[in-house]
DNA sequence: TCTTACGGCACAAACGTTTGCGCTTCTTTT
DNA sequence: AAAAGAAGCGCAAACGTTTGTGCCGTAAGA
């Protein structure tokens, strides 16, 4: 049995050459004669030689591995994003170490710890919406492990991130509704501390103002995105004094929950009340009352872009040029209007 | 700046002790005196010492990393499964390296290669439905990397796997339909080469036979699960001589496609034609015409179980007891009847 | 013919850890 | 009081690779 994997040493011994010669021969180094080169390469093939990556990682202080930390893969946004990340990583011979925080701060911290111990070359993270302290990320600075945040960005200064500008899409969404004749428009937003929520709110207010519509704070409700709280928010909106005829929901899941609640209250969807949301998930194709339009956030592209900038950071680390500039990459969101069937 | 991470050597030098003493002290080894032990541990804390895992991996020939290869995370089944895997892995201080094959054989092979090079301690894989040769998995035997397959199992002998018995759930599904008065029941199945499809078929035939219903081969259609082919299959079923009043679909996605096609043909869902499927995805809660019932496959539990058995294999490798017995773990699927709303 | 150059290879250090073994210096036992 | 044991620590090898440096011999230039 070839239980024992072949090593450089083994090859060297059999060929009566030095280990360094074998190493260089396999790397096609110019200082090795063509004769020995082929002899080495041939024997390596015969013995099924595979370089021991763990040894190389160790020796080079580099693992060609990046860690990805995100709330949950069951959300289509993230599974899309990680595909972008993975494709880009593979293209550059990196692999991805995965960790789901499940929106739990403790888990997030533990994952960061594990990744640090595994000596990942860099980290890609979309923070948990319940994370309030950022020490665990700050700590990584000391270890010189670059981080690129995406989608859910912490409110820290001096960080690299890739995000989708929610404001532009929100404005498009509101304009779309106003074009359709709506005047009283509600919004079911997410946790206020998230940047993306702030942007949604800003877009909402800006678009209303530009159209000379009054901003009613009662029509803008923050939630934790749980079904219960979304139901409650929908209830409040539907029963508020100034009856909204349209609601912009934080994302498709929220929209679907809101639709469901509205139907329980016997409202006619797309008649009494219309919905617009964010994400543009494939499942909305199958639902009874999909949102009229969705703001697309391009998760795949975000993941890809985040990975690209992380690779840049990793490479720039070599020539220890202090990174004085921080990447802030913003993709524009875009309203996708669904066909009426 | 503490750019340079502390090492055992560094600590040893400062304390004028040997490296081995430091190592043992930090491991609470009994042969080290309490005095030096505390001195070492204290300094380690001060210097923010973190063991260099890459060195340890290298030295111990073990990476505490398992590779997970699956078709795509965007399918709810797999994102659920990987959660089970991850939770179990974390519990045992393992991390997971991720790779999506996107049902592409070449990608699958490349991922296997990468994982091998990264010296993962073991592999968890759900094979691509387009994979026809299994050499890349066979090859891993030589390297002594254990594999546990789950969900999509290759037709190889002498492998470990965890799967869900689709036959039992299928029989339950057919019985459910027969109870409801259906007599002519169609099935839209997946690729024949998948074991799970064979089981569905066996369950279908068995259940029909037990109920003394004739088996009509025209009512059982295999597809590649693409929307187009599902449409075509649905068309054939709806227009076959013996009009089926119910259809069992390979999974919820297939069911939703089939429903969509049936509606295009102006069939009344749950009246002219009923659907039952597999998976029990959350999205079916939001759809207009969810299947009447779904066969639950317990992806989280499958992932968990697969990870557990992989860990067992990894541990058993130490005491080089030849594994003569192969794990074949079968969970029972179970029909979940959806509430009528 | 003498110097210079270079092609082709070997030596050895280094990366950070773990661990078997051996060496002291005490303490205990007989 | 001598022998035996134990407690506490150091030495050094090993894991597999990369890479800077040095050496030898042959070929090219003057």
List keywords for this structure.
6-stranded parallel beta sheet, DNA-binding, alpha/beta, 6-stranded mixed beta sheet, homodimer, 3 domains, Rossmann fold, 341 residues, 16% strand
Describe this structure in words.
In chain A, strand 6 (185-189), helix 9 and strand 7 form a beta-alpha-beta unit. Chain A is of the alpha/beta class and 341 residues long. The first copy, chain A, has 3 domains: 8-51, no CATH class; 63-164 and 299-331, Rossmann fold (3-Layer(aba) Sandwich); 166-296, Response regulator (Rossmann fold), CATH 3.40.50.2300. The model of chain A has no long low-confidence stretch (mean pLDDT 91). In chain A, helix 1 (8-15) crosses helix 2, helix 5 packs parallel to helix 12 (299-318) and helix 10 (227-238) crosses helix 11 (252-264). Chain A is built from 12 helices and 12 strands. In chain A, the strands form 2 sheets. A 6-stranded parallel sheet of chain A has the order 2-1-3-4-5-11, with helices on both faces. Chain A has a 6-stranded mixed sheet with strand order 7-6-8-9-10-12, sandwiched between helices. The first copy, chain A, is elongated and about 90 Å long. The first copy, chain A, has helices at 8-15, 19-26, 34-46, 53-60, 76-91, 105-117, 135-142, 166-179, 195-210, 227-238, 252-264, 299-318, and strands at residues 65-70, 95-100, 122-125, 147-150, 160-165, 185-189, 220-222, 246-249, 274-278, 293-296, 328-332, 334-337. The interface between A and B is large, with 51 and 49 residues. The first copy, chain A, binds a DNA duplex (30 and 30 nucleotides) through residues 7-9, 17-21, 23-24, 27, 30-33, 36, 51-52, 54-56, 58-61.
